[in-house]
Amino acid sequence: MTWLQLRLDADPATASQLEDALLEIGAAAVTMEDNADQPVYEPGVGETPVWQHTRVTGLFTADTDMTATLAELQAYYDQALPPLKIEILEDRDWIREWMDTYHPIQCGERLWICPSWREPVDPNAVNLLLDPGLAFGTGTHPTTWLCMQWLDQQDLAGLTVIDYGCGSGILGIAALLLGAEKVIAVDNDPQALLATRDNARRNNIDDTRIDCLLPEQIPNGLHGDVMVANILAGPLISLAPTLAATLDAGSPICLSGILQTQADELMSCYKQWFNELNLTQKEEWVRISGNKNNS
After folding, report:
1. Residues 137 and 269 occupy one common structural domain
2. What's the structural domain count of the chain?
3. What integer best gives the mean pLDDT of the chain?
4. Any idea which of 9-23, 213-227, 245-259 has the lowest mean pLDDT?
5. Domain holding 222: CATH number?
6. Over the range 270-286, which residues count as b (16 or more CB within 10 Å of their CB) and which as e?
């Protein structure tokens, strides 16, 4: 059967409203998906977790008059419609097509991300096997790629790496494969911690080498030698004192999940605790890295 899908870009303020409106005007199904490789954190009571950049998709039968549908949608929606796209959706082997969209990604001189069902391009490289269906970070988004590239450039032998906001665990697992002795993976979504553990085992990493913790489970005096945090600008600012307190003078930090327009604010915040801050950009996203000062 052929379908028509209407895809709209939304934010937390509009995603739920669009979902309700699409169902009201006859969509057979409505889905929401992350439009920026961003983890969804454990919601508070009464909250609905939504990504900052959300793609809302309504599925309609092939005989639907989409011109009329858009007019109906506008009538339910109290402002101008966000960017949208209408596509024809043919019957296909969706599982196979989904799997075919993921290819090995090179993230530096040594490091590759490989879907678990594909053979590595270079068997002698550091190959991180990942199931993109499990959760959150897949390496395709610029923020994840920037952090992976940074890890590839570090000498991690024997060190403890803190992966704050671990998502799928991709950064912490990469650190272990690149020589780190231990990773402390932190996320406030329990599903992220399960995905991290599953992906670590997929890469033959012993459970004793990776601790998966909710923020409230972090022990007093948590200490690491290296910090990576691929979250969002707001949480990175609020967490800055916490992240800095886990590192000794000279220890490196890598931050991402930051839009280029947010870089100055982040740099200003983190220069209180870190020296030699460097900015690396990929598309509209940036990575900030530096070393802990003596404060």
Report:
1. yes
2. 2
3. 86
4. 9-23
5. 3.40.50.150
6. beebbeebeeeeeeebb
Alpha helices in the chain (DSSP H): 12-24, 66-76, 94-100, 142-152, 170-177, 190-202, 233-245, 263-270
CA distance 287 to 184: 21
End-to-end CA distance of the chain: 64
Taking the CB of residue 208, how many other CB atoms lie within 10 A of it? 7
Would you say how long the chain is, in residues?
A: 295
When pLDDT is averaged across residues 23-39 and rounded to a whole number, the result is 74
Choose the weakest-confidence range: 130-134, 163-167, 286-290: 130-134
Do the domain assignments include residue 108? no
Same domain, 288 and 168: yes
Same domain, 184 and 44: no
Q: Does residue 125 form part of some domain?
A: no
Task: Give the CA radius of gyration of the chain.
Answer: 21
Coil, helix or strand for 21?
helix
> 88: burial class by Cβ within 10 Å (0-12, 13-18, 19+)?
exposed
pTM of the model as a whole: 0.67
Instruction: Identify the DSSP state of 130.
Output: E
Dihedral of the alpha carbons of 131, 134, 135, 137, in degrees to the nearest 10:
0
Residue listed under structure tokens 């490289």: 125
Q: Is residue 287 part of a domain?
A: yes
Domain that holds residue 58: 3-91
Q: Is residue 150 part of a domain?
A: yes
- 34-63 residue pLDDT tens: 654 444 333 343 444 445 578 899 999 888
**What's the rounded mean pLDDT across residues 227-237?**
95
